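Appendix B. Extra example for self-study. Work through it before the problem class; the solution is given directly after the inputs so you can check yourself.
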Amino acid sequence: MLKIKDLHATAGGKAILKGLSLEVKPGEVHAIMGPNGSGKSTLSYVLAGRGGYEITGGSVEYQGKDLLSLSPEERAREGVFLAFQYPVEIPGVSNKYFLKAAYNAQRKHRGEPEMDAGAFLKFVKEKAKLVEMDPAFLNRSVNEGFSGGEKKRNEILQLAVLEPKLSILDETDSGLDIDALKIVANGINKMRGPKRAFVVVTHYQRLLDYIVPDFVHVLSGGRIVKSGGKMLAQQLEKEGYGWIETEGAPA
Amino acid sequence: MTELLSDLSLPAGGAAWLDAARAAALASFRAQGLPTLKTEGWRFTPIDAVSKTDFEAARRPRIRGGFGSRALCPITFHRVVVQNGRVLPGGEGSSYSGLPAGVRVQSLAEALRDDPDSLKTAFSRGFDQDGLPFASLAAALFQDGLVIKVARHVRLDKPLGVLFDSGDNASGRPQMAHVRLLIMLEEGASAEIVEESVGSGSARFWTNLLTQVALGEGASLKHYRLQRENEHGVQTSASFIEAGPRARYESHAFSFGGELVRSDLRVRLAGAGAECALNGLALVRDREVVDHHSRVEHASLGGTTRQLYKAVLDEKARYVFDGLVDVRPGAQKTDAWVYNKNLLVSEDADVHSNPEFRIRADDVSCKHGGTIGQMSLESLFYLQSRGVGAADARRMLVYAFGSEMIERVGLEPLRVALAAALHARMPEAIEEAA
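Solution. Structure tokens for the complete assembly:
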């Protein structure tokens, strides 16, 4: 589904990704772990198509297409979803309206008829149950005045509505207490299936207790320096990133 | 206009006190002269559209009627049509015969003809003409206008729509209309007034309004002003509001078009606990200039001011905001906010924003602030990352910026019409990107 080959990216002239390679197949959950500044968020943003990064080398293939040549909205319509570490507040745009616009943009892209307001409301209320969200949030402005946990739940609601093929979760656990974490993880787990893949970017192992990955990769200095199974996450939690950085440093 | 300055003739045949008042106003206008970019309060507001045009006094338009379809204001409201500066009688577009007892709505020309002395007190109250030469000009030259009076504890049952409609006359030349409104709400009275101006002609039309509002104790006025001139339309307006104890004045100004729009609000919170809420939204494009000036005087204890003006600027447009709150000695417990927020969608547009306080009391709470920004790239990316196209995302954000002001409109049918008008006037830059 996703093939990243030797990806190099810079931001403001500074090299951040320095030869990152990763392959993700349908049905798999990959965790990307790493210390602060290792390039985790950059990887998420580059995959989603945010401006401000320059790709200086390598390639990203998504379902046989050159992902990097697509606009952010085209990527989204093709089934790529980024759950933001810091979801953006948009005063004046209601959550409901936003979700409907996003959902219908995707349907239109697939050549399906748009869903009308009544049917959509019913549909989205069902999805809200999945993340235990009060439907009152649908009428509020996108993320405005939401608590950290509510914002993250709102991300997962969007994920549930858009049903992406490839979900990238950027530090989804940050700012969540354990109850909120369970709700969010539960929402994500319900979305897991043989046709969907997840890339879970996280600093801490905690989230991986609830979203159990098939593979764990350690990102350091803009490259993946170690890969393993879910046990690797536990080792990192216990021993920190220090040993990896030493081990992974180029000779 | 330079010719006008020397060649102004006053409407004659009024009561002696009225003729004297007109002459005094004309003298005040002549003493001040036309504002230039060196005149205090006009430094960012070029008035070439007025000063370089040879206007004639407005006359009957060639095409009459049809304004119902041009107005945003629902036809279910009481309605007065002021066409090319003249109030149309009931049945000719105006429809205000069903007013409740205790409410008077009358053409000013008619009132001055039938019973001029009933207006003597209101006219002799005077107003601060300093810095407002066009207000003086309106006081000197007005031909017509409206008298709106709501008696003690009477509530106007539904909103009163006042439609200023302008169109070319037979000569096809630029026209000007000077119009005067007197709004008086006695103790405990309340009303909602929706002024709307629409231009349909192709020659320039200048509407110059002078409005005086007197609110008795506990009276409440919601004053909506929707202004959609055509691209040659000019509107200058000066409003003087005097609010008694616990009276409340609420204004909503929507400027959705016009070559030059200058609005001055001078509010005096004269009685203890008086309040004003001043709201504005301007969508400015092309080379248009919109200028919202306000001056609120807190003259008594415990007054409240809430001001928020917003503008969306496109192309080479200009927006001027000047909001002064003047807290007089003794006006303790004043609570005032003045905010101005601007969204630039073009690099060639400009904004001059000046929220300001002058405070001469020590126990007050005053906050002001202003922002001038471009569309947030973060927000755009967020929307796009969910599949919303770039142009749609930009439209959504412009709409969201403006809709905050529309949400404040309490009249539902008006709110719906304004939302549609906002959608219809998206910046060119966005439509081109679409």
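Self-check: Chain A has eight helices and twelve strands. If your reasoning did not lead you there, revisit section 3.
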